């Protein structure tokens, strides 16, 4: 496993600066040991996923961005990719499980992404197929990360 470097963090910080909310660290009073909370619900899309999605799209070449982006997600990452693609003025397709919450599907569409609903066991495969068919760049929550969490389905995002 290769861990991210301080240079990686600096690149990510620079790529999201001015585009995502710089959320504060807030101390929790009355704790025996210091505890700090970072209210990522203050982000435009309501979650930290916007940081990773925006950094991923910012890190793409102009040619890749011009072709568009496709991802598979059923929640916060879906909205983050849709928002970031819109910010860059590029097309986005989000393949979502047909069991995804309707509010997540509608929020993703409202942010400008084309949403394709498929059965849960097909949404990753469908995104890969669409990338190949349409020439889109595949962007998933874990692409670009130098480490991957052990839990299946989890993701890592830069700061």
Secondary structure topology:
Blueprint: H1 6-16, E1 26-27, E2 36-37, H2 49-59, H3 62-67, E3 69-72, H4 76-88, E4 92-97, H5 102-110, E5 114-118, H6 123-134, E6 137-138
Helix pairs in contact: 1-2, 2-4, 4-5
Give an overview of the whole structure:
This protein is α/β, with parallel strands linked by helices. The chain contains 6 helices and 6 strands, in the order αββααβαβαβαβ. A 4-stranded parallel beta sheet has the order 5-4-3-6, sandwiched between helices. A two-stranded antiparallel ribbon has the order 1-2. Helix 2 packs parallel to helix 4. It is globular. 33% of the residues are buried. The C terminus is likely disordered.
Major beta sheet, strand line-up: 5-4-3-6
Largest sheet: 4 strands, parallel
- Element order: H for helix, E for strand: HEEHHEHEHEHE
Number of beta strands: 6
What structural category characterises the helix and strand content? alpha/beta
The first-to-last residue Cα distance is 19 Å
What sort of overall outline do the alpha carbons produce when their principal axes are compared?
globular
Gyration radius over CA: 16 Å
Query: Helical residue percent?
Result: 25-40%
Q: Ranges with pLDDT <50 over ≥5 residues?
A: 144-159
Q: Mean pLDDT, as a whole number?
A: 88
Number of helices: 6
Strand content: 5-15%
Please supply descriptive tags for the structure shown above:
159 residues, alpha/beta, 4-stranded parallel β-sheet, 6 helices, 6 strands, disordered C terminus
